[in-house]
TrEMBL record:
Name this protein carries in UniProt: Aerobic carbon-monoxide dehydrogenase large subunit
Annotated Pfam families: Ald_Xan_dh_C, MoCoBD_1, MoCoBD_2
Domain of life: Bacteria
Keywords recorded for this protein, A-Z: Molybdenum, Oxidoreductase
Cofactor: Mo-molybdopterin cytosine dinucleotide
Annotated EC: 1.2.5.3
Domain annotation Aldehyde oxidase/xanthine dehydrogenase a/b hammerhead: ranges: 18-125
InterPro entries: Ald_Oxase/Xan_DH_a/b, Ald_Oxase/Xan_DH_a/b_sf, Ald_Oxase/xanthine_DH-like, AldOxase/xan_DH_MoCoBD1, AldOxase/xan_DH_MoCoBD2, AldOxase/xan_DH_Mopterin-bd_sf, CO_Mo_DH_lsu
Length: 775
């Protein structure tokens, strides 16, 4: 029996390792039909006509739905104040865009019938390069918007432009400038996206099983799109085979399944295949950044500035809740105490799939950390300082917390130097530099790279964010059975993070009952309290806080009941894990289980006290939590093939109080692996006509166990001062923090200033050639 925090085994694995997980594609309903999406083969074209007659003749086809059939519902609102086509009516705007939806008896027939739909396209030139998209003669992609004459979406800035410019203008500062790209990448979860929609014509209730990280938020959007009242929509997110941000947005396929189920009066299932997922669903990153940094010649960082061109694809469907069009990018001053900072971000339409935040990004912090950590290394090179030395001299000091950044974020707590020193010690940094010097003398290319990151997770305070005007609070409800076991329902949705275990541990720690005696209910809007879902590593910071607060309410109620049981005043009782006992006489007391039965049993409860111990809480976060970490990467570059081997990777993370250190470790291992993918191999590439070149996992490479080292991890614990249990999020830290460490290591190995991700052998080869290698 285990109680409270610690590395207990994951409850959910009992079903997963037996193959008993239950995913959307496992849902089978009587009379269920199957849908398939016809997608555009071209990136940009006017639709002249769509002829569905032959497809409708297919003996197993029940319906062929086009944008015209959807009427007003052919467009849906996005989370970034834009609209997105559910099914294209006027034009197609990216390769893979949804054009029609076929419903048939089975999935094979539905896909066969797609080939029978005859669409006449009038091709238009495609806009692929985001830098050319703003040229005056660029074709206008979003001519559905009245009066639009270009591809510009937004300009957004943060920080103090004048103060920053004044520092750059000083003649006693050293300035570096570096252009860099964070390429378009893909979360590529194991399970692709899909939905089963079922509409009961009698009760007018819609049930949607769907691959979503945010069931309640999706319900709100389905209500907006379908016109059905929210209480008549039930969204069930069963087991989800990985999300990584891919399953935050609402996709046209979901809406089509819902529309078809309502039209036909039968359940409709839609599951996309791997290529569809890679071509059309929410991408990540795609930032072209020009960073500048100013420092004194002695190495005091003074200012950082960045201009960004953000490629948002054909619709601005960035699924993030902040009031800022570039999400949390304005944390780009990172972990350093600078005097001034400024960023300017321009969002642009191109003929590519929509998206923008996904892949464990913390809403653009991945881009922000990459920018600042690459700039710090460029500056170290410029000043002739060791990158460790420059960082140690400029990290925010422990006595500066809570620290207000130059762009207005208030970092809750931190002890940065301790984390960095710990990483240096695990790595034996001095030893590594000695080894490198020796290898260099033999012509071997070994590199050592550092990064230090600060994350901002737990969206979030109303000051900075909302979703469709809804504040980002999350509920938790606890029901205590008469025998003292508990069911906790939560609004967030696990996709592999282990919530069934860690949320049970939170209740267990608060009430002193065994983790096995707490079951977690999630992923069903009919049985869980409202809340906005799992992304931006917000489950622990927000929903975890709600669970702890609900448990504390249970404890408070238990105290009153215990006082009645023991015939003492409530104030005379004290809590020792699991029990209310009389102060000074611990033998006189009652456990939660004893109190639970008494609360429904024969004793007389004080006036106004309800039977049972059930309680609910809603948590409205006063601030984000700011986890951080220090990473060190060691690479060897093969001088003959330019292949990069990540030989060692040391990660010291601080996410405050850790509920389940084993799960935290697992999150870090996964995130570091993502980082290797992004740094070395992942990129969604397009040819000049806008054809997606990475529509299969043969072309879009993701890392495997072969490409990654045995991770070496360490930790420090700096609790969050405002979180009920002092925990900060961890789910995205390693993905956000690791890419710059790897690129910094490669640059260090080659002696070059910069190389863009992904650092493929051909790019590394070119960089080697620029340094006169091979000799
Ligand atoms: N945890 C803990 N102690 C802490 C912080 C977290 O024990 N101090 C535990 C949590 O209780 C939870 C897990 O670690 O079980 C991750 O918690 P948290 O940091 O709150 O993140 P979320 O649960 O909100 O997960 C979201 C995050 C995001 S945004 C992406 S993207 C990502 C990630 O999680 N997607 C994942 N990790 C993933 N891991 C898996 N297996 N699959 C995904 O799709
Ligand atoms: Cu940015 S990917 Mo996660 O927030 O689901």
């Amino acid at each position: 029996m285990t109680i409270g925090f610690g590395s207990t085994r994951r409850k959910e694995d009992a079903r997963f390792i037996r193959g008993q997980g239950h995913y959307v594609d496992d849902v089978q309903l009587p009379g269920m039909l199957h849908g398939a999406v016809l997608r555009s083969p071209v990136a940009h074209a006017r639709i002249v006509s769509i002829d569905t007659a032959a497809a409708l003749q297919h003996p197993k086809v029940h319906a062929v739905i086009t944008g015209a059939d959807l009427g007003e519902q052919a467009w849906m609102p996005t989370m970034s104040a834009d609209v997105q086509a559910v099914l294209a009516t006027d034009k197609v705007r990216f390769q893979g865009q949804e054009v029609a939806f076929v419903v048939a008896d089975d999935g094979y027939s539905a896909r066969d019938a797609l080939a029978l739909i005859d669409v006449e396209y009038d091709p238009l030139p495609a806009v692929v390069d985001v830098r050319l998209a703003l040229e005056p003669d660029a074709p206008v992609i979003r001519d559905d918007q009245p009066g639009r004459i270009d591809n510009h979406i937004f300009d957004w800035e943060a920080g103090d432009a004048a103060a920053t410019a004044a520092i750059f203008a000083r003649d006693d500062v050293v300035v570096i400038e570096q252009e860099m790209q964070f390429p378009r990448s893909h979360p590529a979860p194991m399970e692709t996206c899909g939905a089963v929609a079922d509409f009961d014509r009698v009760s007018e209730k819609l049930t949607v099983w769907c691959t979503t990280q945010a069931p309640h938020a999706h319900r709100t959007l389905y209500s907006l799109v379908s016109g059905l009242p929210e209480h008549r929509i039930r969204v069930i997110s069963p087991d989800v085979g990985g999300g990584f941000g891919n399953k935050v947005p609402v996709y046209p396929g979901y809406i089509c399944a819902i529309a078809a189920a309502r039209m036909l009066g039968r359940p409709v299932k839609w599951m996309e295949d791997r290529s569809e997922n890679l071509m059309s669903t929410g991408f990540a990153r795609d930032f072209v950044m020009r960073g500048r940094m100013a420092a004194t010649p002695e190495g005091k960082l003074l200012a950082v500035a960045v201009d960004v061109i953000a490629d948002h694809g054909a619709f601005n469907a960035t699924a993030q809740p902040s009031r800022y069009p570039a999400g949390f990018f304005s944390v780009f001053t990172g972990s350093y105490d600078v005097a001034a900072a400024h960023c300017a971000v321009t969002g642009v339409y191109t003929n590519k799939a929509p998206g923008g935040v996904a892949y464990a990004c913390s809403f653009r912090i991945a881009e922000a950390v990459y920018l600042v950590e690459r700039c710090v290394d460029c500056m170290a090179g410029e000043l002739g300082l060791d990158p460790v030395e420059l960082r140690l001299a400029n990290l925010i000091r422990p006595d500066q917390f809570p620290y207000e950044s130059k762009t207005g974020w208030v970092y809750d707590s931190g002890n940065y130097e301790a984390a960095l020193l710990k990483a240096l010690e695990i790595a034996d940094y001095a030893g590594l530099r000695a080894e490198q010097a020796e290898k260099r003398s033999r012509g071997e290319l070994m590199g050592i790279g550092l990064s230090f990151f600060t994350e901002a997770v737990g969206a979030g305070p109303r000051k900075h964010m909302d979703m469709f005007g809804l504040g980002m609070n999350d509920g938790a409800a606890i029901r205590i059975s008469p025998s003292g076991t508990a069911q906790l329902s939560i609004s967030v949705q696990t996709q592999g993070q282990g919530h069934e275990t860690t949320f049970a541990q939170i209740v267990s720690a608060e009430l002193g009952i065994a983790t096995d005696d707490v079951d977690v209910i999630h992923g069903d809007t009919d049985t869980t309290p409202y809340g906005l879902g799992t992304y931006g590593s917000r489950s622990t910071p927000v929903s975890g806080a709600a669970a702890a607060l609900a448990a504390r309410k249970v404890r408070d109620r238990a105290r009153i009941v215990a006082a009645a049981m023991l015939e003492v005043a409530a104030e005379d009782l004290e809590w020792t894990t699991g029990r209310w006992a009389v102060k000074g006489d611990p033998s006189q007391g009652a456990s939660i289980a004893e109190i639970a039965v008494a609360s429904r049993g024969p004793i007389e409860l004080p006036l106004g006290i309800e039977a049972g111990l059930d309680a609910e809480a809603v948590y409205d976060p006063p601030n984000l939590t700011f986890p951080f970490g220090a990473y060190i990467c060691v690479v060897d570059v093969d001088p003959g093939t330019a292949h990069v081997k990540v030989r060692r990777f040391i990660a010291v993370d601080d996410c405050g109080v850790r509920i389940n250190p084993m799960i935290v470790e697992g999150q870090i291992h996964g995130g570091l692996t993502d980082g290797v993918g992004m740094a070395l191999m992942e990129m969604i590439a397009f040819d000049e006509d806008g054809n997606c070149l990475g529509a299969s996992l043969m072309d879009y490479l993701i890392p495997t166990a072969v490409e990654v080292p045995d991770w070496e991890t360490g930790f420090t614990v700096t609790p969050s001062p405002h979180h009920p249990i002092g925990a900060k999020g961890i789910g995205e830290s390693a993905t956000v923090g690791s890419p710059p460490a790897i690129v910094n290591a490669i640059c260090d190995a080659l002696g070059v200033r910069h190389i863009d991700m992904p650092c493929t052998p051909s790019r590394v080869w070119d960089a080697m050639r620029s340094k006169g290698r091979p000799a």
